[in-house]
């Protein structure tokens, strides 16, 4: 019996099979790496690029969502070279030319978050999978932002968050594919603290009413830390159910608690209702510990302030941006928005408009739509001319750092929009913090499709 | 002691709102046998009667000031309400009292809405299972709130109370205590008094008028009342209208306490159903008693001392009480035998 040397030996077959298995295992990694021609989800092939605007079109924040959508439509106009150009004229540095993004005309699709995490994820998924959206942006809630940016990380689609104020969005829940231009609860506390000390002194006793969900907890913690650092004492922190409507049963215990400041860690309807009712209980006319009783609303929004009517007059809070800012970027945006819609933009509109432009500019700088390269272009990017002074997208957590506005409810409004006066533009250096304090991992640049 | 008195006051004023809404809900269930999930929407529609009247009273004459421009380059607007331009101080008083005046608008509007709702939709579901009634009335509630959102937007719209009632009353001084120990908003006291008056008026109407007597007879035995030649259906339609009016005026007077938005009715709906179930399905005194009871319990459960013992009790107290009462008294506090037991 002779042994045949020309056919496959058992050893060769085993070697070949092993090599095949190893290759099959490695292949997906290789295909998703930059070395292989930058294939990625929804790579634009025609002459347009599609962006997905995921905003609350129904539900309690529908009016805020409508303002976000107006801002996005304006941004698309400006990116495509229509209208007066808005902040394209003031953004520094800028690679935007008014000819779309990388020469492709900007188109968009919209989704309705309903301000519900599951609905927001579903609409984002639909826009990515069915409508070919290359980037998702928008929203009016931290719960939604965290949910959508988690999805976007899985799908390899960049998410430029809208209004989200929880520390967690760029803290423990931060993601490589998520970017937040809006400020956060920590920054509100850091900005408000010194102003509160100046206005109300350092010997105060604070009572917190806090919305019982993620954002409320981080807002309470940040305000508590900031005010206790001033020397204030925290009398009590009470969690209130979201959407409680009538907060009177939580306000009555404040009356004789010995507190002389009430901090309302509420947003939206809860803020409108709790503030209205606290004022009705005579808290602002009260004297406790020999001092005038004060109410503080850490996060103010002009749209929400309208709902509280006269009750916001004189109340201190913080905000991301206000249309009364006099810098060139803010004025250019207010002019474009006001001319198109007949009223000034909200802070949510400003954030969304800026996010759309920043994404487009990052694509231009990267020279590609390839998400990992666009992410790298955004990370650590420094810019100016978009309101609130020089700004930076910090690479470590994708949080934007810029000046924060401390505002007071206007005592003598000249119009229905003139509700907040800027008390102080708190410099960015005062609200910066070490990215590691809120934990979290950004995750990988490369994700498998 | 002062804390307990404050919470008691708070519970009574909350209970007043619950009882008012639950009263209408029970009235509809007791007469027509319909589980009306659109009842909260009627409360919301009433609130928007107040919003509408104020919008009408504050319609403004707009004059453009070309000397001063807005930040976006258009002339600023100088706005003067017509009613103040035409009637001077009297016009200002009308605007100031727009909320109580809105009751005059809400009564006919809500009566018409109630009758149209009953004749146009709900009468077709009398003999259908309760599950179908719930589905159709819940759907109607969603339609109504979307209509309101279309015309008024999603944001709350503040409705100021008359200036004379905008402060807080020093109840402590009235009770011989030190000043500022027990202060309570005037409008909440007004609301409590208003709810007592409306509840009393509804009971008096049912107790002391021939119409009310027939309705009560129909609630007890519909067939027998029909056999003696009384058209009970027409009277029950009127009762649906009355229930809508009660919910509507309750909504009108609540607007200064809670800036209304399209979702206002849903906020109260589940809660008032619990009130009705605890009170006993179809029992008007039960609904009122349960309204006040749950209002007071909810208020006391929110006290720091109580929450220190049982954390989170404030968020579940109403449902906890409902479970206990249904276990001990399955028909509710004052439920009638045979209601929803077939």
Q: What are its keywords?
A:
heterodimer, A: 449 residues, alpha/beta, Rossmann fold, 2 domains, 7-stranded mixed sheet, 5-stranded parallel sheet, 17 strands, 18% strand, disordered N terminus, B: 342 residues, mainly alpha, two-stranded antiparallel sheet, 15 helices, 7% strand
Helix content of chain A: 25-40%
Number of strands of chain A: 17
CATH class of the largest domain in chain A: Alpha Beta
Number of strands of chain B: 4
Q: What is the total domain count of chain A? A: 2
The fold-level CATH name of the largest domain in chain A is: Rossmann fold
Rg measurement of chain A, Å: 25 Å
Q: Provide the spatial order of strands within the biggest beta sheet of chain B.
A: 1-2
Compressed to H and E, one letter per element, the order of chain A equals HEHEHEHEEHEHEHEHEEEHEHHHEEEEEH
Mean pLDDT of chain A: 90
Helix/strand class of chain B: mainly alpha
Q: What's the shape of chain B? A: globular
Helical residue percent of chain B? 55-70%
Strand content of chain A: 15-25%
Q: What percent of residues of chain B are in strands? A: 5-15%
Instruction: Quickly count the helices of chain B.
Output: 15
Greatest contact pair?
A-B, 52 and 53 residues
Q: What's the name of the CATH homologous superfamily of the largest domain in chain A?
A: Response regulator
Largest sheet of chain A: 7 strands, mixed
Morphology of chain A: globular
Structural domains of chain B: how many: 1
Protein name (chain A): ABC-type branched-subunit amino acid transport system substrate-binding protein
GO biological process, one term (chain A): amino acid transport
Pfam families (chain A): Peripla_BP_6 (PF13458)
Domain Leucine-binding protein (chain A): 48-410
